[in-house]
User: Fold this.
Amino acid sequence: MLQDMDAYWMPFTANRQFKKAPRLLAKAAGMHFWTPEGREILDGVAGLWCVNAGHARPKIVKAIAEQAAEMDYAPPFQMGHPKAFALAEQLVKLTPPGMNKVFFTNSGSESVDTALKMAIAYHRVRGEGARTRLIGRERGYHGVNFGGISVGGMVANRKMFGTLLAGVDHIRHTHDLARNAFSVGQPAHGAELADDLERLVALHDASTIAAVIVEPVAGSTGVLIPPVGYLQRLREICDRHGILLIFDEVITGFGRTGNPFGAQTFGVTPDIMTVAKGITNGAVPMGAVLVKQEIHDAFMQGPEHLIEFFHGYTYSAHPLACAAALGTLETYADEGLLTRASQLQGYFADALHSLKGLPHVIDIRNLGLVGGIELQPFAGQPTKRAFDVFLDCWEQGVMIRTTGDTIALSPPLIIEKPHIDRLVDTIAAAIKRAA
Assistant:
């Protein structure tokens, strides 16, 4: 088996450990995966934060198959196809008011780099070409392209890749165990942390800053929920200094927080929003950047035959991806999935917080249908306790995700209460065994 697996260098994986004891998936439907041996695995993380409608949904499968038979590919430069325009029209019906332009990419990483380029170019076409600086946040995750890891703030994703982009700085993260441990929903303390942006404005001057990018809920760093009032204050500071605010909604988009987008859950509208993952239910790679009208219009100058924005991808608005996305949006609408998390979040929160008091559980965080359980690391062995829980849960037929020593949960939005019970009970038993 090891020899058969030798050629594949796996992403974000402990390759040597995996190939000694492979965890293979062969089939998926609804809330479950199955291994090649036929063992059923409850999916507690929607694949990788993306399968929001559950696996192998009929309308999505049918849309992809029909599109592949009709037209497998269409060039996106100087050409178009009907489903690209139809999808964009459907998406802007879900966005906050004013965010009515869509630029298609193929992943969250590409969406972030596209958004950063848009922000810098927007200021240039408006005559403020000195605004080139980008501000991210400590512990932020914005994909793995150079732009994304530059504004990102997760050390392991950055440290091996040189000096990254120039002209990037970071505001403080919002994680505050001392004041906010075991908060249910948004923590009460920490709105003032947004004022750290004023420190960077004072250091660099607002006239040099193009944009600030944050995740409404920081997912990959361990499910960090924004304090009450934090995002509102960040919006106010950006407005005061003419800085664009970008929300990375690759994880929070498409129902995860109880609304179509986190922007609506928190009542804060950014200037640019990046999405991916749930846009196609994970069935075909796709991302998008959602933009306010005035940002788009700033580029629509000069002779009409000239390209306004020199950016795009060979697979932008790929026909199969557009078909999958249209099938996904129809499935979300049919079943009310984009708001279903708001109906289940109370039960989900109670189940998660029932783990308080278990050995080495130092914090529990939740919002909508996303949750984080932070564990005290083994002395001198960071990440190992959570990874042991991950392996234990896998053996018990439940798939979770870990980041550092935090267990991260983001189940498909079709989850039912018995699934939540099994998910949390399995984690509880595994935590006790890992103590």
